[in-house]
Structures are given as C-alpha cells and as structure tokens.
Amino acid sequence: MHGTLKKTSRKLSAVSSGRRLFLEHIAPTKNAQGRRFADLIVLFTEELGSKPTTSQTATVRKIATLQVLAEGLELSIVKGTASAKDRAEYYRINTQQVRLMKGLGLSNANVDDDGDAEGVIDPLEYARRGATRHSHSRHTQRERLDSEDS
To answer: What does the pLDDT read at residue 107?
Structure first.
C-alpha cells in the first residue's frame, strides 16, 4: 500500500451529487429567475445527451447563469430602460455564452478569430447603422443589387 492513495467511501457533497444547486441552503425555485436557472440547467444537460462530466456540469451552470442575466437585460432593452453600459454588457454576455455553448457542442454559432460570435453585432453599432445588420442602407443595397443584374 506504500505510495498509493486509499479510496474512501465518503459520499459526494449534495452539490457534487446533484441533490442541490448551491452549497448554501437556499431554495432557488422561490422566484422566477431561480426557477428559470434550474430549468435551464436541466434543459442544457439534456441537450448534451449523456451523463455530463464535472467540467461539463460547471460549464452548463455558467451558460444557465449567463442566459438568466441576458434575459434580464433583454427585458430592460425592450422596455427602453437599458443604458449604453447595459447594452454593451448584453453583447459581452451573449458572446461569452455562444463561446461556452460551442465548446460543449450546444450551439451551431461560429466564433470569429477576435472572439465575437459570427453575426452578432454590438448594439451601439446596430443603432449607428440605423437598426440594420448591414453597414449600408437598404436603398443603397437595392441599387447595388439592381446594378449587378444589369
């Protein structure tokens, strides 16, 4: 036995075994955000398709947290109460979430070399472009398309 570790029969903690979501004894299902967080963990874990590893479980928790944060910011954006800082934070959250989801195989989104999710543009840039994903107006684009047909 010299030089080897003896396995203990100690049980895993409630968080490690999946019996609880947090070390602290709280009930996350007492509010809407807590229920959404718990639901997302279940849904993302099911999407993995097999029993997740410990690192996959930790990543799923991060993705669920980012989703709840993003949904809160989406609400303030839709209400028109979001600041420029909120919109920038929303963009960062979405980019990080796409990166984590792609790492787990949960997303088809591509991440560019600079770390930005493909097709995701900064909300301030979106507004500067006149609420369009393209850097030029529709009229200019229509004219360009018409000229290509000629």
So the answer is: 75
